[in-house]
Amino acid sequence: MRRTGEEGEGGMRVSYDHTGSVVLVTGGTRGIGAGIAGAFLDAGAEVVVCARKDPGAAVPGRLVTADVRDPADVDRLVGEIEDRYGRLDVVVNNAGGSPYAPVAGTSARLHARIVELNLTAPLLVAQRAYPLLAASGPAAAAGAEPAGATGSVIMIGSSSGTRPSPGTSAYGAAKAGLHHLAACLAAEWAPRVRVNTVVVGLAETEAAAGHYGGPEGVRRMGAAIPAGRMASPADVAAACLWLAAPGYVTGAEILLHGGGEIPAWREIASGPGG
């Protein structure tokens, strides 16, 4: 892996060369996951993406259909990577999400499945991938001890796990658990494998317009962020490319939220009579 920098419009642009690395991105067929997978492809990596169903369209990398909530599917997924490439250097646990599901009046099974997808599944994938990640790096491939931590697990977290998440309580609780899981694995697996979390705030994907009430809704939501816009898949991918590069950072939570969300009391206080 090589990192280079070049001066461009807006300042220094950093690019990464992940040639020779094998990267798994769960949920990598659309949205943020597809953006991450595409960025690793552009950086020269061999990329495997997984989803429960074949989307029937081109995906950024080699597709393996798998339900990451199912231990047997996870074993098959990582086993196929091992058989095909003989190594695995980076896992991006991106698969997740939740419908709007207030706790009152919704089924216990629905909330259990949300927790399984957003917390249990990343644990299963990381656990199964660990032996390959721990052997990552050119020194390990030659039969010697690795010079340092080259295997990397990146959890895609959410600001819903750091603040109240009404309407998606199980999702928020699972993401909070995911953040803690990453910190625990970072301590448990050091120095062989690094584990970090990208805590994503409001993000603009192909589903954003429908979720936030159309383009105008997206614009209004972006205006509520100090950076003036929502995060893009490219923003998340840039953080993942950096965290995947061999280095010292482990157990970290990278807050990718554009400065956070401007609190509602600011709008209330500035209104009539405020």
TrEMBL record:
GO terms for molecular function: oxidoreductase activity. InterPro entries: NAD(P)-bd_dom_sf, Sc_DH/Rdtase_CS, SDR_fam, Sec_Metab_Biosynth_SDR. The keyword Translocase does not apply. It holds the Pfam family adh_short_C2. The keyword NADP applies. Keywords: NADP, Oxidoreductase. It comes from the Bacteria. Belongs to the short-chain dehydrogenases/reductases (SDR) family. This is NAD(P)-dependent dehydrogenase (Short-subunit alcohol dehydrogenase family). It comes from Planomonospora venezuelensis. The lineage of its organism: Bacteria, Bacillati, Actinomycetota, Actinomycetes, Streptosporangiales.
